[in-house]
Amino acid sequence: MKRTLFFTAVVLLTALAVTPLFSEAETVKCVIAPQFDKAGGFCEGLAFVKIGGKLIKWGYIDKSGEVVIKPQFEWVCDFKDGMARIKAGKKYGYIDKKGKEVIEPIFDKTGDFKEGLAWVKIEGKWGYIDKKGNYVIEPKFKGASDFCEGLARVMTGFRWEFIDRTGGFVIRNEYDWAGDFSEGMAVVELAGKFGYIDKTGSCVINPQFDQAESFSEGLAKVEVKGRAGYIDKTGKYVIAPKYEYNARSFKEGMAVVVIGDRVGFIDKNGIQAVKPQFDAVRDFSGGLAAVKIDGKWGYIDKTGKYVIEPQFEEDAGSFSEGLAPVLVGGKWGYIKHPLK
């Protein structure tokens, strides 16, 4: 979207009372020792890390913490469909899980492989390649996005339209902006208002919102007059717009909401599931959410109970494939999901 929709910034503490620690909460130790300058979550069994002292480069580790692809790249991304985007020198390409360069870094920008294709930018134009690096759709667009549910949005002129996997136009209605398809619908912007279309290009929810996000778990976050609420696929409000704009989409049945300077969670009925009491939070992943309070990060379950008590003073990431990155003493390591 045109505005950052993810709220993880630390806000000033107040004197509000907070939920006390529960006896079930644990103090945990890293299963992969803090040793990395930066680290990501695990995807397809590997996580990207940054190490190397003065000549810091990106590489990948496995779940034992062993470096399986040596740090050698200027930038990397998660593995998707067995391949990862990398930057070597000033150009972007792709590697496999052995670190082998499978598509030469010749592109100015690249996207992840989704549904077998990836968008690439070269010489100012966007097109799509297959996993062998062959052009399936020649670079000819002014902008492009991932294929989602069989369609991809591309920019022609100054507007957005949708193509199929052959490059043929499916939805020729021109929009000022468009989002990817999710759950059969895509956000579109027209004359400053946001609504939704289906895969035939028919407008199913008229542009009427000041901002809107993709559908997630059957609901979509929308904004009206600076307040966020949630609608169903008929456009009806399920949760009235009453939250700060930096509320988030639903993940695992829970959505982050902000009241004043406190952050908490609601369920899909709009019921306050976890009282707004935190400085910052991350979305639920693997049944747990990282939360920051009194300057420390810990993890709660969906009832608001601490499963891992706040103990990480610098940073903590979400669980992915059973592990979560945490920052300790200026270095990143990993902790194990306590319930798996």
Order the strands across the largest sheet as they lie in space. 1-35-34-33
* Percentage of residues in helical conformation: under 10%
- DSSP strand count: 35
Low-confidence stretches: 1-23
Give the termini distance in whole angstroms: 35 Å
From the alpha-carbon coordinates, what is the Rg to the nearest angstrom?
22 Å
What is the global morphology?
flat
Strand content: over 45%
What is the overall number of helices?
A: 0
- Mean residue pLDDT: 92
Oligomer: single chain
Structural class: mainly beta
Largest sheet: 4 strands, antiparallel
Signal peptide: 1-25
InterPro entries: WG_beta_rep (IPR032774)
Keywords: Signal
Pfam families: WG_beta_rep
Can you lay out the helices and strands and say which pair or pack?
Blueprint: E1 32-36, E2 38-39, E3 47-51, E4 57-61, E5 67-73, E6 75-80, E7 83-88, E8 91-95, E9 101-107, E10 109-110, E11 118-122, E12 125-129, E13 135-141, E14 143-144, E15 152-156, E16 159-163, E17 169-175, E18 177-178, E19 186-190, E20 193-197, E21 203-209, E22 211-212, E23 220-224, E24 227-231, E25 237-244, E26 254-259, E27 262-267, E28 272-278, E29 280-281, E30 289-293, E31 296-300, E32 306-312, E33 315-316, E34 323-328, E35 331-336
